[in-house]
Amino acid sequence: MRFVRIALLALCVLLPIQAQAADSASKTLQVIGQTSTGQVIWYGHELRAPHVITVDPTGPSICINGQPIHVAAAMADTVTTPATATKSSLCQQAREFTSQLVTSGVNGRQRIEQVADVFQRADSLVDMVRIVSDDLLAIHWIGDPDTVYFEAAADQLPNDPLQATRDYAAELNGWLEVGCLIIFGDGEMIIAPAEVPMVRQQIAALRQGQPVTKPFIRSPLIIEQLRHPVSTTDLLERGK
Question: Which of 6, 52, 87, 216 could be cross-linked to 82 through a Cys-Cys bond (beta carbons 3.0 to 4.6 Å apart)?
Fold first, then answer.
């Protein structure tokens, strides 16, 4: 299983938030982090380092180097019924285990880490597990570029979208700091550092129109955007 265990450490801790005051247009943006490590591909375009991650609280939304990645909408999609019965069964098992932990008085970081272990042990289904907060996990299924969010709290849903967005922005900064490649577009992928050279070779082949054997990236939408980056004009039209 391609799992970066450091995800269960301190990468999710919210970094100091600073007000950006360069001009009136940027005063509302909150700088979550800045790093010169890691790599970002945005709708097929390479975003050069340093990567400055900001949150616009009016959305709320996240930007990297001024480009909106539109993760706020994804944060609202908590897991209900995954695509397959096996995934659904695993999520139900995690929900029942969460209830047991709550009943036993296990809370906070200890609870979320134990629930994360339920998903990590299912290494035939789960590619990566990320702790977003003490109540929220991000699940990456094998072969599925989309992120699914799992609420590890009994009868409690996050009621602060801005804080959830800040937490996820800090998480992204942490992944970049350890050297991950993050692909944004019509789908999302976080590539662990050990996998980056191989994935980079496959991306180069895609961009040259060459076939890729045993592709790591399977999402047709992401593959198309890597081959043909979405024009900035089209992206501006989408944002209207």
Answer: 87
